[in-house]
Design brief:
By secondary structure, the protein is of the alpha/beta class. It folds into two domains: 264 residues, Rossmann fold; 124 residues, no CATH class. Helix content is 37%, strand content 17%. The protein contains 16 helices and twelve strands. Strands 1, 2, 3, 4, 5, 6, 7, 8 and 12 form a nine-stranded mixed beta sheet that branches. Helix 12 packs antiparallel against helix 13. It is globular and about 70 Å long.
């Protein structure tokens, strides 16, 4: 925690900020991760654990709960009226109905505010019994939106080139066939045809959706997949064009014909950057001070080498948002203030407990190169594994005189299963491995009655004080 490591605070600005936060006792916690990484499940479970917090709460990283200092938690009126309300009640209804179902996944930005009343710890207060209130704002937003940050440093021509690189992957190229067919006949010098651009952009979006179903995660522009309130808006009606097309039609993207299709594409790309990407960072991201990034390593392993590699690439892009070096575009533009960043491998209830250390190592191997940079920039980071909603129980099974660890749960169809889901590798195996073997961590139905939050395995057995310093 920051109190334990005051040397982490390198700049005066950060010191001031922390002082203000200590006085206000207000934490802006953001939760993100790519689609399906478990954000909804995590926040639902976290809120539930806090609201119902009692001796049995599984929040080992929250010192107030761990040390039995929690007095009570209630949901409060949400501060930002332009955000959706995080659908906690709906999610709980799904999880607690007679045949429980997983709640609907994150589609845009939403928020929940909690007021947490607790007894101060000895360290911070002269009076052990003194009460304090912490306001905790939890914001949920798609990790895909962070994949757009690098766009801010690109113009339309550079972005198109980047996309060409992506599209040269044979599987992606195949999936893009309908899109390629639609743009092949588009006259880029002709007068801007909004309908034609809309149709082609819809096919480009469909291509991204198909990539997602095929296990790809570096899907960008982020709003094409998860448009939030922008669904159907012309600002999303653009797409990349190839060098070949530019050459064949004699187009210089620095000087496109006025009001031509090419110029319209350039304009829309620019508009997307200034009116969609920048405001997200300026109006929302800038306000977060704690960030959880959920990463679903297990599903990527299930889907194969290409999916794992793509997740790695997507994480590299995503983490650009947490590198605050002076040359970073984010720092130049918005001066964000996140000072604590937790990466969590989600859905750890899909594996037996003794594999959780490997899961954390696997996650760390993905984060390795970028993480060093983040630490250097003064953001404290940590990796862990969490199961937000425990859909399995672990135990031992005797086989041929040997005890093997197993999980019990229900598969997607609801049938009871007992299995050893397999070992988690400490780092991603090379392509050869995947030709002979695959991973099959099971999908589980939500549990019928109990569910527990964040029963995490912590790296080095340490636990963080994530929400408070008290
Ligand atoms: P989001 O897109 O990040 O909001 O992801 P969700 O929270 O909707 O999770 C996507 C799916 O992953 C869920 O429908 C569940 O099937 C699964 N899932 C998420 N969290 C957990 C968890 O803690 N345990 C288990 N067993 N499954 C989970």
């Amino acid at each position: 925690s920051l109190l334990q490591h005051p040397n982490i605070l390198q700049t005066k600005q950060k010191l001031k900020l922390t002082a203000a936060r200590l006085v206000n006792n207000h934490v802006n916690l953001a939760v993100t991760g790519l689609s399906g990484s478990g954000k909804t499940a995590f926040i639902t479970s976290l809120v539930n654990q806090l609201i119902e917090a009692n001796e049995a709460a599984h929040l080992p990283f929250f010192s107030v709960v761990r040390e039995s200092r929690l007095i009570g938690v209630k949901r409060d009126i949400q501060p930002n009226l332009s955000f959706s309300r995080f659908a906690y009640e709906e999610a709980m209804a799904k999880l607690t109905q007679t045949s429980p179902e997983w709640p609907a996944s994150t589609k845009g930005i939403s928020q929940v505010r909690l007021k947490i009343k607790y007894k101060k710890s000895k360290g911070l207060s002269k009076y052990l019994t003194e009460d304090a209130t912490l306001t905790l704002d939890i914001t949920d937003y798609p990790g895909e939106w962070l994949l757009d940050l690098p766009l801010l440093d690109m113009d339309y021509a550079q972005w198109s080139k980047h996309c060409q690189g992506e599209l040269s992957d044979p599987i992606r190229h195949d999936l893009a066939t309908p899109f390629f067919n639609a743009v092949a006949n588009l006259d880029l010098n002709a007068r801007g045809d909004e309908l034609a651009l809309q149709k082609a952009s819809e096919l480009y979006t469909q291509y991204l959706i198909d990539c997602q179903s095929n296990g790809y995660q570096l899907l960008q522009p982020g709003r094409f997949i998860l448009p939030g309130e922008l669904s159907g808006a012309p600002v999303l009606h653009f797409f990349p064009i190839t060098d070949l097309q530019l050459e064949q039609q004699g187009i210089d993207l620095n000087k496109p014909l006025k009001d031509s299709n090419a110029e319209l594409l350039c304009r829309r790309f620019k508009h997307y950057k200034t009116e969609v990407v920048q405001p997200f960072y300026k109006d929302h991201f800038k306000g977060f001070d704690r960030q959880v990034v959920l990463v679903d390593c297990l599903s990527a392993l299930n889907r194969g080498f290409h999916s794992y590699q793509d997740l790695q690439k997507a994480l590299d892009w995503l983490m650009g948002s947490f590198q605050y070096g002076s040359s970073n575009i984010l720092n130049r533009l918005f001066q964000p203030k996140i000072d604590k960043l937790v990466f969590a491998a989600s859905k750890a209830d899909h594996i037996t407990p003794e594999q959780q250390t490997n899961l954390v190592k696997l996650l760390e191997s993905m984060l390795h190169s970028v993480r060093k940079q983040i630490q250097f920039d003064g953001v404290s980071t940590e990796s862990t594994a969490v199961s937000a909603i425990r859909a399995s129980k672990s135990g031992l099974c005797q086989q041929n005189g040997e005890s093997i660890p197993v999980l019990q749960g229900r598969n997607e169809q609801g049938a009871a299963i007992t299995l050893f889901p397999g070992e988690v590798p400490q780092s991603c195996p090379g392509p050869e491995f995947w030709k002979q073997q695959k991973f099959e961590f099971p999908k589980l139905s939500p549990p019928p009655d109990e569910y527990t939050t964040c029963s995490a395995s912590y790296q080095n057995g340490s636990s963080t004080r994530f929400f408070t310093r008290g």
